[in-house]
Design a protein that fits this description.
Length: about 130
């Protein structure tokens, strides 16, 4: 009985984490691309804090972004940025990593799901055998 509860808990944790991963991947699909302008640069020991300004539907928005040391960026430079149409304050500078996360989700899900189904079948058969023997 303890093994069954442990299995169910592990499966539940996995399912919740898989749903969270899939949500974090697919939420960027609806983001729209726009151009932002660097309006302020503040240097510090580990890099730069850059103030970006962009316009969505005639409204001007600003956000801060961190750049590590060695990254070249200039005042007035224009960069691509993606924003959430439902909340333009939510932005990402890079959206190219999505394919990598798709691959991880599929591989991780498959690697866990296949043995999980096998264990579920094993436990179900064991329970059915115990019922038949009574």
């Amino acid at each position: 009985m303890k093994k069954k509860i442990s299995f169910i808990l592990v499966l539940l944790v996995f399912i919740v984490s898989l749903i969270a991963t899939i949500y974090s991947i697919f939420r960027f699909v609806t983001y729209e691309k726009t151009t932002c302008t660097v309006v302020d640069i503040e240097s510090y020991r580990d890099g730069k804090i850059v103030q970006l300004q962009y316009t969505v539907d005639g409204n001007v928005y600003e956000r801060e972004s961190r750049y590590g040391r060695g990254k070249s960026i200039k005042m007035g430079e224009e960069l691509s940025i993606w924003y959430d149409p439902d909340d333009p304050y939510k932005t990402v500078r890079v959206r190219d990593f999505a394919a990598f996360y798709y691959l991880l989700a599929i591989m991780g899900g498959g690697l866990f799901l296949i043995p999980s189904i096998g264990l579920l079948i094993k436990f179900t058969n064991r329970i059915n055998n115990k019922r038949e023997n009574k």
